[in-house]
Write the structure tokens for this entry.
Amino acid sequence: MVDTAAQTARSATTAAPTFQLFIAGEWVDSDSGKTFESLNPADRRDVVGRFQAGTAADVAMAVKAAEMALPRWKATPAPKRGEILYRYGALLAEHKERLARAMTREMGKVIAEAHGDIQEGIDIAFLMAGEGRRMAGETVPSELPDKWAMSIRQPIGIAGIITPWNFPMAIPCWKIMPALVTGNTVVFKPASDTPHCATLLVELMAEAGFPPGVVNLVTGSGGEVGDAIVESPDVSVISFTGHTATGKHIAERAAHRLKRVSLELGGKNAIVVMRDADLDLAADGIVWSAFGTTGQRCTAASRVIVERPVVGQLLERLEARARKLKLGSGLDESVDVGPLINPAALEKVGSYIEIGRAEGELVIGGAAATAGDLANGNFFAPTIFSGVEPMDRIAQEEIFGPVLSIVPVDDYASAVMALNQTRYGLSSAIFTTDANTAFRAMRDFETGLVYVNAGTTGAETHLPFGGWKETGNGHREAGHAALDTYTEWKSIYVDFSGRLQRAQIDNQA
Ligand code: UN1
């Protein structure tokens, strides 16, 4: 006998639309003839669509298309390329509501956060559109008379863009917009959990007027599509956001070809709360940073390092706030916390609960949330452990879910030590009312982002975004810094003296 849920799933599957790859300006099927499904994480019976299981042969076609489009695209004046980025940003704004609903359905984040995700895409599109008229190099004096010295940026070539599911529209835009404005062409492989979001972005790119072959989309697995992009001798730069292990794998493979790789990887972000902090403000910031996006941000806070005298008062506030959070489908505007991305994530987060119980004390949460309709999705209750030591596994390993560890410390010095005792270094924050302590934190925290009296999330697109240590490999996204990933510097010397001038040779006066 077939149960009702299975029947619903089956009929939904038949009804789900099939999407294609985008290569050389055409929507095409994969060479594999196979597809995979993308499911709604809040209700796995809802099949968002079927997507092409791309292959190395599809990647080769996409790379070829990107190669063919490159000469004209890089010869297009940068301000003209920028105009297309402006159009794209305007299209994202025009379609924001439709895109946000699609994102919440496919990825699970609550609708207000889905709007925010698209807003980051709009912001970077407009910022990078402006770079089309800046993209400054330097003009400096020469050592020699009648000679100029200057530097210009030029595109590297074909950019391989491999993106995660947690910011399924913002992050592709963070990578693709700077790649395009600087004159590169793109082969884009989105996470297999969010291929619909990627498809919607690329549809609008075509509408904005990027010429055929300038942006190509290949959906499929990391092992097949991702590796083929990384291995392609014609792809000159890879930008990847995701797990540290995958980032290392990409870096190793790309190293054989001396290919440039920009990596944004794991985090274990901490918030320090000093005894002089405004504890209500701190609690608000912590709950938003830890449980917003269901803890699935690279910038999410998963450690709170607190001066002992205020542990009790802070915990009371955190627990009260966490208890009020409503779980459910992010399309319901009263919901605070959506689902985890997939059943594997649910299992991984769950596996840390036993570890956490052995290391600290479970204050709230600690289990999948399965009441009523929640049972159809990947929901996990917001979880807090108290009495955690800085080197405990739950304070060291990236869990990527709504799990927060409270680490008590004696003073500022031990807070800094605990904060920096991690292999990661993306974001950090301090709550204090003492200006001197705030400035010390800005100096002492070993992270790419530091917040004062705010949580660890919410980076804006006009400053560099990225982490220290194993969070990355020294590259930055967003801001002017993003241009470095996608351009080569060329230094140019123009001698207009009309005679041979030998640089650095001691000439007779
Ligand atoms: C990420 O989770 O990889 O600062 C990106 C933030 C967002 C971006 C997060 N603007 O939280």
